[in-house]
Amino acid sequence: MTDYFEVHARDGPARLGELRLDPSLTTPALVDDRVHDAGSLWNEERETPEGDESTLTVLPHRAFPAGTREEVVDSFAVDYPDVDFPSAAVVKSDAAESATDADADAYVLSDANGFVGHASAFRDAVLAFTDAVPADAGRYLAGVATPRNVAVLAYAGFDLFDAKRARARGLEGFYLTSEGEHFLEDLDELPCACEACRKPREEFTRADCADHNANALAAELAVVRRRIRDGRLRDYVEGQARHEAWLTATFREFDDQYGYLEQHTPVLRDAELLAASEDTLRRVEIQRFADRVTSRYRNRFDNPLVLVPCSATKPYSESQSHSQFHRATQFRAHTVSMTSPIGVVPMELELTYPAQHYDSVVTGNWTEGEKAFVANVLQRYLERNEYPRIVAHVPPGGYTDIVERVEAELDLDVEYTVPDHPTTDESLANLSSTLSGELKFPKREREHNTVKAIADYMMGPGAGDDLFADVEITMTSRYPKLQIRNANAEIEGHGGENAQLATMVPQYGVLSFTLEGARVWAESDAPTKRVEIDNFVPRGSVLAPGVVDADDDIRVGDEVVIEGPKAFAVGRAVMSGPEMVESTRGIASEVRHCEET
Amino acid sequence: MSESEPSPEVYERGRGMDAHNQVMRDIRSEKEKTYDPHEPTRVWIDEDNTPDGVRQSLTIILNTGGCRWARAGGCTMCGYVAESVEGGSVAHEALMDQIGVCLDHEAEEADEPSELIKIYTSGSFLDEREVGAETRDAIAETFADRERIVVESLPDFVDVDKLEDFTERGLETDVAVGLETATDRVRHDCVNKYFDFADFEAACKSAAEADAGIKAYLLMKPPFLSEPEALEDMKSSVRRCAAVDNCHTVSMNPCNVQRYTMVDELHFAGGYRPPWLWSVAAVLESTADVDAIVVSDPVGHGSDRGPHNCGDCDDRVQTAIKDFDLRQDPSVFEQVSCECEATWEHVVEEESSYAAPLVR
What sequence ranges are listed for the domain PUA (chain A) (predicted)? Predict the structure, then answer.
């Protein structure tokens, strides 16, 4: 039971938490003056400490340093007492399981010196440790944080740190910043304006340097907290981690642990996603979008495909170039945008996270990595979706290279309409004339296909057809705020004629269900993400202790159906499914609509 | 434990000890090298502070087949067991050959015969399974004309009859006991050495009956202790030893990283740092008032695998320690200072065993 730690927000494995001491502390944070070490059992037998509400008490421990063999860890394992004050248990990263009976509020790793500084060892330690300890317990990485490494440490999922190492480095004559470690004696001027640095260079001592290092670490953690709140820590880490090889290697090692990152990565955000390096291609959000577009989504139009380049303005349809493309195609083609780093974006999903949320560095020059990625996605897309004709309205260079690669690979016949630039009169006229004779699709088809495409994307292959198979839907309001209503009053208990089932949310390009819609969804063949709750009627949200069970594949931001003996509800997940089940504190899901049953 | 024989069979009890022994056996099995039973492990000439003043000393590491306890697993920091002979025991003639080599060395290296003879075995000189009664008597005879002899032994083997081989020949005799720490819990769980402080006290008493003295060997910073814990353990251990009657000398030695040990594995993985030389100095300085000679002989000072400070001041602090050994004057430590003392103070203030080492 983690009474004194709560995770309020997540950004990948990183968490914005609260150490609920008196006064409380927002994490990731330094806890130097908030922790009391009740002492080692290696040198002394110790009583269970008294503890108090203002301090995180590290329970009497036998710390196993890096390199301690398993036999020794097992035989000297400590039975931590179950206490009713804020407490932390000391564990070795690969043997944390044994200590979880005590239900401590936080866990301290004893072997950080063995893996901090080594990317693959760090990855292994984090995976083993986080797998063993409860999801909602605080994670304390003691004695290793520096201004340079702490963003990656937090990105990997640690919450609590201290300034002990940073201070020690200062006393040793090293001036630390978020970008490096400098010999103090080599600094002609101090590259900082913190309180400790506001004195003449010649009066600046190693003790001042220790203070500066602690200040720099605290400031860096404030940046990290801000970034987690904004859902933009990854963008920051991609840049900041480049100041040290092992840190860059570390976030790449985690990118190879797709399962670990994916479970913790929200399916939607309202924050911008900046693609400023090729590492962005390996982000969960990018990989997930590409995967869903090529394995869940299906094109439902009979018209030719027109491949177009992306635009800087999002959503694409609001850009000048896409308006021009649209005037040329006139609803006679299914428009799919090609883009690095997203891959391909069918027009129905142009609002869906992260399609309208990313920004990239545009120079017109494609790297081989970008080309390979987009070509791969386009190929998978075209293997799954057949078109009567394929028109490539893309500029020469990277875009055309990619299309030609896929064309050869799949033995397609692609019609190219851009001799120079896609928005020249000549190109646009080419596009229009290429499509002459093709039929226009009506507005109703476009709207229905958009809703179905979004359902595919959210729920799984075929979901768009299965979801509303038993109802006759009609649309009201205008794109992108489509309201999906039930035109068939025969269906019992679904609110009668024209009852609203769902709304398209323009900010994220997802569906948000009403109670009636949730019932239709739950009864349909479309995969539902379910949260089973205890015997109560939730108001506004479901807290983790109230969750009896939850589907493993629920992610932060997912639309979920909430059911219990007393209630039926629909809402948006705030935790992943496994976290809902494991956690004893915090909001598991927001509840949009609820009814007592 | 005081009634028991130190056989591996008796010692091997308790979960922690089983684990330590299992691991140490496994680590030691990696070492294949064996040694010639006719050569001592090491021999050297030095100066030592004795109750009668500073004397030239001949130190002999006798190769007796190694420590019996180490064959069961043994102490977590000790690599000397590796320095043993194939087959496990050494015959009388071979041991006397080793003594012969040592005398030759002394004749070559020193102008005068050493007044002090120190014999270590990486085990127990007084254990008759290592050094038989015949050999012990012959060695006593060999050195009968010297002033003082020190032999190493676990407390269990200290008895009047054996020591009288030396004392009745007029030799001032001391038994060097590897107590490691006065804290039983640290000796058991961190060092994996299984006798109690009470056994040490009993040995001091037995030695007194033969008119011999006891020299306690302490180990600063076994694995699993933080720097401040190690420092406090030594401060209290020096005082507790010095307070025992007949324990006239305490040799407090910082742990160094020896090959084929648990400490070596921890050090390699980043989980162990030998103590700071400032810690050694701090113990000597703070216990200078005790009624015993307190010395320290840091091995491998200034290196990553030995006790060290920042790299700049290691030699100077080592010199001060050696100076203190001979003069017992704590003011020698006022003569050395370095910027890294502030780092060391920070470590002593802030290092916890779950975040150690804080500084390499």
Answer: 529-596
Q: What is the pLDDT of residue B7?
A: 45
Is B222 inside any structural domain?
yes
Phi and psi torsions of B332, nearest 5° = -60, -30
Q: Is A295 exposed, middle or buried (0-12, 13-18, 19+ CB in 10 A)?
A: middle
- Selecting from A44, A65, A72 the residue whose C-beta is nearest the C-beta of B23 gives A72
Contact A253, A13 (CB under 8 A): no
What Å distances lie between residue B144 and A148, B99, B115, B169, CA to CA? 66, 14, 11, 6
Does A109 sit within 8 Å of B268, measured CB to CB?
no
Which residues of B are less than 8 Å from A173 in CB distance? 339
Cβ-based interface (< 8 Å): residues of A facing B = 37, 40, 42-45, 58, 61-69, 71-72, 74-76, 90, 108-114, 142-144, 162, 164-165, 167-168, 171-173, 206-207, 210
Q: What is the CATH number of domain A453-596?
A: 2.30.130.10
Q: Which structural domain range is residue B193 located in?
A: 8-355
pLDDT tens digits for range A364-414 = 789 999 999 999 999 999 999 999 999 999 999 999 999 999 999 999 999
pLDDT at B1: 38
Cβ atoms within 10 A of the Cβ of A272, count? 15
Please judge whether A63 and B18 are an interchain contact, meaning their C-beta atoms are less than 8 angstroms apart.
Answer: no
CATH of domain A5-163+231-255: 3.20.20.105
The Cα angle at residue A128 between residues A122 and A133, in degrees rounded to 5: 120
Q: Is B52 exposed, middle or buried (0-12, 13-18, 19+ CB in 10 A)?
A: exposed
Provide ipTM, 2 decimals: 0.91
Pairing of strands A499-505, A510-513: antiparallel
With CB atoms and an 8 Å threshold, state whether B269 touches A210: no
| Residue B36: inside a domain | yes
Structural domain contains residue B3: no
Contact B266 A210 (CB under 8 A): no
- The contacts of residue B91 (CB under 8 Å, 6+ apart) are B37
Indicate yes or no: CB of B269 within 8 angstroms of CB of A168.
no
Contacting residues of A for B354, CB less than 8 Å apart: 37, 58, 61, 63, 90, 108-110, 142-143
Inter-chain CB proximity A67 and B357 less than 8 Å: no
Q: Is the peptide bond before B357 cis (omega within 30 degrees of 0)?
A: yes
Six token digits for residue A220: 């860096």
Question: In a mutagenesis test of the B interface, which of A75, A90, A158, A205 is the best target, namely the one with the most B β-carbons within 10 Å?
Answer: A75
Q: Is the CB of B268 less than 8 angstroms away from the CB of A67?
A: yes
How far is residue A308's CA from residue A300's CA, in Å, rounded to a whole number? 19
Q: Quick one: closest CA in B to A116, which residue? A: B270
Tell me: the pLDDT tens digits for A246-272? 999 999 999 999 999 999 999 999 889
pLDDT in tens, A157-170: 999 999 999 999 99
The CATH number linked to B13 is 3.20.20.70
Min distance A152 CA to chain B CA atoms (Å): 19
> Would the pTM of this model clear 0.90, i.e. be above it?
yes
Just give the CATH number of A273-434: 3.40.50.10630
Task: Give the integer Cα–Cα distance in Å for A193 and A198.
Answer: 6
- Provide the number of structural domains found in chain B: 1
Residue B1 lies in a domain: no
DSSP string for A573-594: ESS-HHHHHH-SSSEEEEEEEE
**Is B19 an interface residue toward A (CB < 8 Å)?**
yes
The string of DSSP codes covering A233-285 is HHHHHHHHGGGSHHHHHHHHHHHT-HHHHHHHS-S--SS-EEE-SGGGGGSHH
Residue B293 contacts A, CB cutoff 8 Å = no
CATH 3.40.50.10630 residue ranges in chain A? 273-434
Where residue B12 falls among pLDDT bands split at 50, 70, 90? very low
